Amino acid sequence: MTSPGLQLDISVVRKVELARAFLSLAQAAVRSSSDLNLYVAVNHLQDAAEIFLYAIAEHLGVSLKERGGFDGYFDQINTRTTTELPFRPRLNALNKTRVNSKHYAVQPERKEVLAFATVVGEFFEEVSRTVLGMELAKISLVHLITNEKIRAALTSATDAFLQGRYDECLIETRKAFYHEFEKAFDVSSFANQETYEWWKGWFCKAPTFAQNANYIDKNVKEPTDFIVFDHSRIDADLSKSGLSHTTFWNVWRLTPAVFLKAEPDEWIVKHDARVFDEEGIRERAEYALHATIDLCLSAQRNREQTLSGPYTVWTIKLRKGEVPLYSKADRNGQSQKLPADLPEISASSWVEGFDGLVYWNVTLREPLMFGFVCNDDVAQ
Question: I want to staple 205 with a disulfide (CB 3.0 to 4.6 A). Which of 146, 184, 199, 378 is the partner?
Answer without folding.
Answer: 184
